[in-house]
Design goal:
This protein is of the alpha/beta class. The chain is 24% helix and 30% strand. The strands form two sheets. A six-stranded mixed sheet has the order 4-3-2-5-6-7, with helices on both faces. A three-stranded antiparallel sheet has the order 1-9-8.
């Protein structure tokens, strides 16, 4: 059972749902006067669950696109090298873009990605992250919409994984050290 690998639950399914609704309402309010559709860019795979819930909570027209970006590979710490494994399918020139990420850890990937997307001449680029670990930050990242700041625990669930497992948990929990050490 996956639950046997959980040390403790950090955020319940209900807490997550409430915070996602708040973030969606905040994004909708911030773009209320914009005539254009907001382009939400989900960073796969981790943000898929959060992305789906978030865009349904934004009460205004949105377009979807996805990227696969990595600085981790198969490791649990960043390599420092950012790789674009899947780029956007559509142009973001003159568009309002909201990057949707599950967790900001070192900041390496998001720092690189934000600069890269800003170079494509959108009207704006904002970042929405469900979780942030500021204690692990090595690159500066401005998070416009944040679910929660978290301590330096190994978190899984709600899209977060260890070795591609646990993404389907409806809550966010701390993985027992015995599982990954």
């Amino acid at each position: 059972m996956m639950s046997d690998d959980i040390e403790r639950i950090s955020f319940s399914e209900e807490e997550i749902a409430a915070r996602v609704r708040e973030l969606g309402a905040q994004i909708a309010a911030d773009y209320r006067d914009a005539q254009e559709t907001v382009y939400c860019v989900g960073i796969l795979k981790g943000a898929a669950v959060f992305f789906t819930d978030l865009v349904r909570a934004i009460d205004r027209p949105v377009c979807f696109d996805f990227m696969i970006v990595s600085s981790y590979g198969d490791a649990t710490t960043t390599s420092g090298q950012v790789k674009i494994l899947k780029d956007l399918d559509f142009s973001i020139e003159n568009k309002h873009v909201v990057i949707v990420e599950d967790i900001i850890d070192s900041g390496t990937t998001m720092c690189y990605l934000r600069k890269m997307l800003e170079g494509r001449h959108p009207k704006s680029v904002r970042l929405c992250a469900f979780l942030s670990k500021p204690s692990r930050r090595v690159a500066p990242v401005e998070i416009d919409y944040l679910g929660y700041e978290v301590p330096d625990d190994f978190l899984i669930g709600y899209g977060l994984d260890y070795a591609e497992k646990y993404r389907n948990l409806p809550y966010i929990g701390v993985l027992k050290r015995s599982v990954y050490e």
